[in-house]
Amino acid sequence: MALWEYTSFIKWLVFLNIFLSNCVPTNFLKIQDLRGVWDVQNLKRGYNLPASVPGGVYSDLMKNKIIDDVFFKSNDINTRWVSKINWNYTRTFTVSEVLLSHSNINLVFDGIDTFARIKINDKHVGVTENMFVRYIFDVESYLQPGTNTIEVQFISPVRAARLIFEKQAHKYVVPPLCVPEEYHGECHVNHIRKMQASFAWDWGPAFPSMGIWKPVYLEAYNSSVLRDVTVEIRSDTAGDHWDITVNVYLAKNYNKDFIQGTVIFRLYTDIEKLTNIYRINITKNVEGDFVFTQTISISKSYVKLWWPNGYGEPNLYILKVSYMDVNKNEKSSKILKVGFRTVELVQNAIQSGRTFYFKINDVPLFAKGSNVIPISILPELGQNETTIRFLLQSAKDVHMNMLRVWGGGVYESDVLYQTADEMGLMLWQDFMFACSMYPSGEAFLSSIRTEVRHQVRRLQYHPSIVLWASNNENEAALRGDWYNTNWNFTLFHEDYVKLYVDTIRDEVLLNDKTRPFLTSSPTNGIESDAEDYVASDPGSNFYGDVHFYNYLFDGWSTLTYPVNRFASEFGYQSLPSTDTLFTATDDPDDLSTNSAFLLNRQHHSSGYEEMQVLIEYQLNLPSRNNTHYNRIFAYYSQIIQAMSVKIETEYYRQWRSNLNNVGEGLTMGALYWQLNDVWVAPSWSSIDFKNNWKMIHYYAKKFFAPVIVKGDKDISNNVHIYVVSDLLKPVRNSVLDIIMFTWDSFLPLSQRTLKIDVLPGFSQRITTVSTFASVSNTNEPCGNLQATDCFLYFTLKDDNNETVAPDNFVFPVPLKLVKLQKPTVKIIDVRQADSASKVFEIEIQTDRIALFVWLSVKNIRGLFSDNGFLQVTPTKMIYFYAEETTPMISIKSSLAVTNLLGDDGI
Ligand SMILES: *[C@@H]1O[C@H](CO)[C@@H](O)[C@H](O)[C@H]1NC(C)=O
Ligand SMILES: *[C@@H]1O[C@H](CO)[C@@H](O)[C@H](O)[C@H]1NC(C)=O
Ligand SMILES: *[C@@H]1O[C@H](CO)[C@@H](O)[C@H](O)[C@H]1NC(C)=O
Ligand SMILES: *[C@@H]1O[C@H](CO)[C@@H](O)[C@H](O)[C@H]1NC(C)=O
Ligand SMILES: *[C@@H]1O[C@H](CO)[C@@H](O)[C@H](O)[C@H]1NC(C)=O
Ligand SMILES: *[C@@H]1O[C@H](CO)[C@@H](O)[C@H](O)[C@H]1NC(C)=O
Ligand SMILES: *[C@@H]1O[C@H](CO)[C@@H](O)[C@H](O)[C@H]1NC(C)=O
């Protein structure tokens, strides 16, 4: 609804008088909002409670104190009954004679979750069955002047999924039957068009929700209504103009087979406001739409380009599109902010395989970012602007330029896409299909066609979206027989093509020809298409994108990682901080990974065992009977996650300009799994459910920095030093210092300084530091010392001594083999650094080199300038940015610091 705009009467009058006619308008399109307080009922159980629309049954039952906070303790399990019974949402509303005088009256649900019968005044209006569709019902004949009743009767989605599954099973079973047992979820979600993760996932609980999750309203008109606007922006072949094709979709008029009126485009460029006015008279096209299409051209000098984060400003321009029927005195408009940019997914044949990278405005760019799971597991809470802004700002702050909106969630709210446009975050947009086979019945495919049409028309104009992709991991699942489909590969392959190619791709191309399209992720792209959409190895390193997970090998060794074209998923689990855990439980015993609480929340099979294995490659866990064991385990799990993803990401970046001897490389993307959380639990997230950055998110600021210097330890323990730059310009005469520290001194043992030119958009090998392997060779970095006694440290400065790349380091051996002395790390001073009392300067002192120094402030929201860092100087200054004005005394009293050898964890 946010996009409807009611221009002031006077302005419109003036406008019309000048441009259109001498007819004086008297009224406008009529909208009657039906949001607000409804009732939610289950008669059998005697519930009749006030409810919110938009909203959902879990939120309503919480507000009415029928159920406790669903995110606390085991309430995901305790409240599951809510999803297994039916719920009615009802309200009354008054309808005026004026509204009823219109010849078209629609009831519009922008989003309804999911299975419902709609009644008005006890008469059947229609049914819904797809959460991702906008439902529009012609309700003219059901309404009466004065009081009316609307009833939305929801059917349990768990029950609905089972019934639909059973019907399908008469033909053949479409697997998987259920989510894996350790998800503690529900079955057959692949048979329904609902957030797939709402029946549980490996990072989230099952909340099979019901409710009216988006606005609902009546709209009345005598002519038509502007329904959707898509904008295809292309650079013309000569290169000096933008061609802007605007498609204006108009609502049908039940009394006519044509729509007349006036369409107005107004584009606010840097130079002037451009206005185009068209008189229209359109009939239905072959797809059944009333669509008015017009291309306008503007000189490129009129607008600035939209650039992703790190490459320039994400310039946006207002395009206002209006439809009016002067004779009927009706007008509706939409205001879009469009961006001028080109996007290309380059898949050129090379000696082995094909390249795979994005080019924006003709600039090849390395995609840096993460995967976004649903903003909330309760759809009604996924619209929260505060959360969305925080998450996207956190992505931007750590130099991300791309996020993937992953296929097991929802098409997110307008706020998310608008924010991504504004922040220059590119979006890889999946359609909502993940980790399953899906049925291919006619009704199901038809519903999906409607869904894709609606979502593409809703989202298409956003410059942030750079790619449409049909599904998550289903090509790999089919090829890899994950769900035992090989008994009839042909059958499931036919279904696959029917859904992702013949339905989704077909519908996308009907509505948007300006973006690349992939059938799956991971996929081999063009090569998968050539292999009838299911490649023999969808995870090939030579084509397309790759998802890579391995929890058995050491995450701190690059030998663990593949060399590929584009890593669109990879990552490691960690536990949230103790403070965050205590928001979901009040029992200290629940911090143990053996507790019923944390076992219920570990949905990844053997998750804690793997975490322990990964920790023990590198670190010595304290004995189980250590009083702080649980805190230390959680903190160590964050160290392991941060360091592993750091090393893996730097490794992918290292390959951006290089091929190895089998032809792998030219890597151009690293999107780790996953940005956010939907509850307090062990997960792959870098930001926890309470919007606290885990250690990995602080590390991302460095490993995604525009320029990095990194050391890659090879199989013979040589360290190859690379400088990788995503910049568009060189940094000449930079100074690279390769420093050797021993663990017990702040003074470097040795230091080598190299003058280098940092080449733009390039990964260059600078030098190799010889082996750490043998013990007493003075040519080696550690000199006469053992490899366990020293580590490498890098700094890169420009000729003005300004930092070019964040400092970095390489540990030659696992830290558990190093005899580290316990440092004393203290906060020695805290100073207020601004007048608003939001920024604080914190001075940290240590008596020897300290590892993974971790600061925390209990109960104060905010972020540190750095955290989890190596401290190689006796003092270090860190800033804390509080979200709100905070007295210094509160900061001082709640600040704490620990490090690898701190005995309290955090
Ligand atoms: C919803 O309302 C209908 C009557 O309109 C009733 O038959 C049905 O039992 C109600 N469902 C629930 C869950 O209360
Ligand atoms: C809509 O059209 C009907 C005739 O079809 C007319 O009676 C009514 O007044 C019109 N409504 C408005 C608000 O103009
Ligand atoms: C609009 O188009 C319809 C159908 O083609 C036609 O019947 C009608 O006369 C046209 N109206 C005007 C004003 O041209
Ligand atoms: C949105 O989320 C924030 C936390 O990020 C919370 O404080 C706020 O209450 C939420 N707003 C709504 C309307 O739910
Ligand atoms: C496999 O499915 C196809 C339909 O796609 C069918 O013709 C064939 O008989 C099936 N084969 C088996 C072994 O069930
Ligand atoms: C903790 O357990 C270890 C053996 O795992 C034992 O050696 C040590 O004495 C125990 N410490 C305490 C404080 O119980
Ligand atoms: C460069 O700056 C650092 C502080 O960041 C300082 O310690 C060092 O002395 C400076 N070096 C030169 C050559 O100015």
UniProtKB/TrEMBL annotation:
The pathway to which it is assigned is: Glycan metabolism; N-glycan degradation
Occurrences of domain Beta-mannosidase-like galactose-binding (ranges): 38-214
Give the reactions, separated by semicolons, that this protein catalyses.
Hydrolysis of terminal, non-reducing beta-D-mannose residues in beta-D-mannosides
Which ranges carry the Glycoside hydrolase family 2 immunoglobulin-like beta-sandwich domain? Answer: 227-341
Task: Give the UniProt entry's GO cellular component terms.
Answer: extracellular region; lysosome
Residue limits of the Mannosidase Ig/CBM-like domain? 718-816
Q: Which Pfam families match?
A: Glyco_hydro_2, Glyco_hydro_2_N2, Ig_mannosidase, Mannosidase_ig
Question: Where is the signal peptide, in residue numbers?
Answer: 1-25
- Localization annotation: Lysosome; Secreted
Q: Which Gene3D superfamilies match?
A: Galactose-binding domain-like (2.60.120.260), Glycosidases (3.20.20.80), Immunoglobulins (2.60.40.10)
Taxonomically, which superkingdom?
A: Eukaryota
* Hydrolase among keywords: yes
Major subcellular site: other
**Alphabetic keyword roster:** Glycoprotein, Glycosidase, Hydrolase, Lysosome, Secreted, Signal
Q: Which family does it belong to?
A: Belongs to the glycosyl hydrolase 2 family. Beta-mannosidase B subfamily.
**Assembly and partners?**
Homodimer.
Protein name in the entry: Beta-mannosidase B
